[in-house]
Amino acid sequence: MTSSTPAERGLAVPAISRDEVAHLARLSRLALTDEELDRYAGQLDSILSHVQVITEVAADVPATAAPNPETNVTRPDVVAPCLTPEEALSGAPAVEEQRFMVPQILGEGE
Fold first, then answer.
1. Within a domain: residue 32?
2. What is the CATH number of the domain that holds 44?
3. CB-based contact 37:17 (threshold 8 Å)
């Protein structure tokens, strides 16, 4: 009997092995049981397999920063009526030199 790899025999090769999960757990200082290592190896393999499928599907799609390409979306500057300083300050509880007066929240030296 000749030895062959799982891929050569037509079997799916896991994207991550149980030993690799154990190594990552040690690096992360996680104490995982054998049951947890088996479960996480299966979950991570599934996640990595899905990422691989998505990568293959999205390989022919050009990268974009936004799904709707719009450039230089601006509005023209138009002069419009606005409040006078007196109108803007008319509802303020305290005004000083045409400015809103507020309580001091920081010390003098800050």
1. yes
2. 1.10.20
3. no
Beta-ladder partners of 100 = 95
- Type of residue numbered 66: A
- The b/e string for 11-40 (b: 16+ C-beta within 10 A; e otherwise) is eeebbbebeebbeeeeeeeeebeeeeeeeb
Residue 96: strand, helix, or coil: strand
Please write the tens of the pLDDT for every residue from 25-79: 999 999 999 999 999 999 999 999 988 888 777 667 676 667 776 777 788 889 9
- Give the gyration radius of the chain's Cα atoms: 32
Contact criterion met (CB below 8 Å) for 45 and 16: yes
Q: Provide the 10 A C-beta neighbour count for residue 45.
A: 19
Query: Is 0.90 topped by the overall pTM?
Result: no
Bridge-partner residues for 96, per DSSP?
99
Q: Which domain holds residue 38?
A: 18-58
